[in-house]
Structures are given as C-alpha cells and as structure tokens.
C-alpha cells in the first residue's frame, strides 16, 4: 500500500530547512516545536485535557465497620474521624450521606461478644451484625448499593483469612468452601455485592457456584479483591476490624509488593472464574498495577481501595499543615481515576460528598 504522507500536517509550525532538520535530529537538546501553554491557559481548556478522571458520587464507595451492640459508636484512635457503628447508629449516620448522594457502601463486621473459632463460624451465623443489618439497610435505603466484605480473619481465633491445617498453614479447599458459605449467607440476607478479600485460590469459582445453585447469581455481583498486596498500609484497619493475625503474617496468600507478573495472573484467574468486578488494594503505591489491570480487562469495572494507612497518612499530614488536605486528596483521587480506577473505596467519602456539593 502507498505510504501515508505527513506533508502539510504541521503547517502552523515554522518550516525548517533540510540542514536544520538534520541538525535537530542529532541534537537531543534542540527546542521542541510542541507547545503546551496554549492548551491549558483557560479553565475549560484544562478540563478538556483531563479525560476520564471526573469524580462523581457513583465513583465512591464508603467502607463502614459494623459491631454487635445496636447503639454503639466506637471511635478508632488510629483512624481519626472513623468509627465502628451498631446498626441503629449506622442507619442514623448514613441517612444524611445518602441525602447527599452516597451511592454505595462496603460493610465490615466486627465482633466483640461473639466467640471466635478456627473456622470463623460467627461470620455467617444469624446474629452476625452484617447479616442482621442487611435487611434493615435495604429497607431504609432502597437505592443504596450494598457490598459486603467476605473474609474469615475478623471471625477466626487465629486471625488468618482461611482455614488452617494442623501445622498452621492455609488449607485452601476448606477455606474456599467456608468463604462461599459466608458469601451465600450475605447474598441471602440482601447484599447486592459480595467482595471476597481472603486471597484464597479459586474462591471466585466457589462463590459463583453456590450463588448459581441458589438462583442468586443474577441478583448478587462478585467484586473480587483480585490484586491485594501484603502491605504495611493495612495497620489501622487491623485495629479497626480487630483482625490482626495471632501469629505469622499473610505473605503466603497476599501478593508481594514488587510483583507485576503474579498480579496479572491473579486478575486473570478471577476473570476466568467469573468475577463481575476487580479490585487493586492498596491504592497510591500501586497505580501502575491499576493501569495494567484496566488495560488488560477494560470491560470490567475496576475498584481501587484507598486503605486505612493511606487515609491516616493524608489526614494527619493535612492536620499538621504539611499540605492542604483538599488539594492533595483531589490530586490523589484524580491520579487513581487517571490510572484506570472506576470506583474508589475511601474513608474520606463523607468529606468528599460535601466537597462535591460545593
């Protein structure tokens, strides 16, 4: 085929002679003919340069901690401004947020009175705070999208995310069976989304299977914590959810922070098993992974979790005057959207709802 000619495509630029073009080719310091200021001198022009980074209420998901005592409000010292709520207090807390446009929440159950055991039996019992809360939340806020975190660590006496062998290591098959049972219980109670965060192999397949068996596959989505790294940013969350491991760590099932390849394999595994949505966790340190996953699976909604350590770090830096919190937080969130995130799970959601109204 005839080669395309670029002649005349840069008529607005000064025409260079052949010797000038040759000299420019050999001089890496030569002045570029590409000019930027004319594209960003007006606010609307600047907005036109920021494609696919808008943040609206549907781009935010609010994580909340739910405890057994219905009237409880428990402040979390490592996460100023965040609390654990009993269901009655949570309903009151959410009401003005829903009025401001809150579109979705992510529920985490936290237990004090209920005994913890080796298989996390409290995760799906009738008195579990999440299972009790779901019908009430659905009734109070019929338009609110409700996701439930699915994991064993808040309910096991060992604090790990799966069932252990007698040697104290993860036993994958009974683990995914338990995870699927818990997901089914949440779906039956009214969850729109179940979000397994355990990082067991093949748990998406197991969850999809039990939802299908109970005719819930079309009424409950699966948001997979597909690419969840073994991160130091989780510290405040483990305080909030009372889910720190009693021994060892989670490096044998959460992903090593430096890996791109296993992150790609993790997302591929979950997509092949039927995940409806994917997630990268944590956020700021893993934007390259967000882009990698979004480029590979552009057809699936991608969530990013701005985790507890990121929240506390930004909030405390703003409080001591290191920077203006509003300016920096918007910058961080726009960066997440630019990398490819469709929805940001953030504890800043109540504050952001106010800012979006300004």
Automatic annotation (TrEMBL):
Binding-site residues, Zn(2+) 1: 151, 153, 161
Catalytic activity: 2 5-aminolevulinate = porphobilinogen + 2 H2O + H(+)
InterPro entries, A to Z: ALAD, ALAD_AS, Aldolase_TIM
Entry's Gene Ontology cellular component terms: cytosol
Protein residues bound to 5-aminolevulinate 2: 308, 347
UniProt keywords, alphabetically: Heme biosynthesis, Lyase, Metal-binding, Porphyrin biosynthesis, Zinc
Source organism superkingdom: Eukaryota
Pathway per the UniProt entry: Porphyrin-containing compound metabolism; protoporphyrin-IX biosynthesis; coproporphyrinogen-III from 5-aminolevulinate: step 1/4
Entry's EC annotation: 4.2.1.24
Gene Ontology BP terms: protoporphyrinogen IX biosynthetic process
Enzyme class of the recorded protein, top EC level: lyase
Role according to the record: Catalyzes an early step in the biosynthesis of tetrapyrroles. Binds two molecules of 5-aminolevulinate per subunit, each at a distinct site, and catalyzes their condensation to form porphobilinogen.
Subunit structure: Homooctamer; active form. Homohexamer; low activity form.
Stated name of the protein: Delta-aminolevulinic acid dehydratase
Classification of source organism: Eukaryota, Metazoa, Ecdysozoa, Arthropoda, Hexapoda
């Amino acid at each position: 085929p005839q080669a395309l000619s670029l002649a005349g495509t840069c008529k607005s630029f000064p025409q260079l002679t052949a010797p000038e073009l040759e000299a420019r080719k050999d001089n890496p310091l030569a002045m570029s003919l590409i000019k930027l200021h004319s594209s960003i001198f007006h606010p609307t022009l600047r907005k036109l340069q920021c494609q696919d980074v808008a943040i609206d209420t549907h781009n935010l998901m609010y994580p909340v901690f739910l405890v057994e005592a219905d009237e409880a409000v428990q402040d979390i010292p490592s996460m100023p401004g965040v609390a654990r709520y009993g269901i009655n207090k949570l309903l009151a807390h959410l009401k003005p947020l829903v009025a401001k446009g809150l579109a979705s929440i992510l529920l985490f159950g936290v237990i004090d009175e209920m005994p913890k055991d080796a298989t996390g039996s409290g995760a799906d019992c009738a008195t579990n705070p999440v299972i009790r809360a779901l019908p009430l939340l659905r009734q109070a806020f019929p338009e609110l999208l409700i996701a439930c975190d699915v994991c064993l660590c808040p309910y096991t006496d060992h604090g790990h995310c799966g069932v252990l062998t007698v040697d104290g290591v993860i036993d994958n098959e009974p683990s995914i069976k338990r995870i699927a049972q818990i997901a089914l219980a949440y779906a039956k109670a009214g969850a729109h989304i179940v979000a397994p965060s355990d990082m067991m192999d093949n748990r998406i397949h197991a969850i999809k299977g039990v939802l299908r068996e109970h005719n819930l596959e079309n009424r409950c989505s699966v948001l997979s914590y597909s690419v969840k790294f073994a991160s130091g940013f989780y510290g405040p969350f483990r305080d909030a959810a009372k889910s720190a491991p009693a021994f060892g760590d989670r490096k044998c099932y959460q992903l090593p922070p430096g890996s791109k390849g296993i992150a790609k394999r993790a997302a591929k595994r979950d997509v092949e098993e039927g995940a409806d949505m994917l997630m990268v966790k944590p956020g700021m340190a893993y934007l390259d992974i967000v882009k990698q996953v979004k480029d590979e699976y552009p057809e699936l909604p991608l969530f990013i979790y701005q985790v507890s350590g990121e929240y506390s770090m930004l909030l405390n830096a703003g409080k001591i005057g290191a920077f203006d919190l509003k300016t920096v937080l918007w910058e961080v969130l726009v960066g997440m959207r630019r990398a490819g995130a469709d929805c940001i799970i953030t504890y800043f959601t109540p504050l952001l709802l106010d800012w979006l109204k300004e």
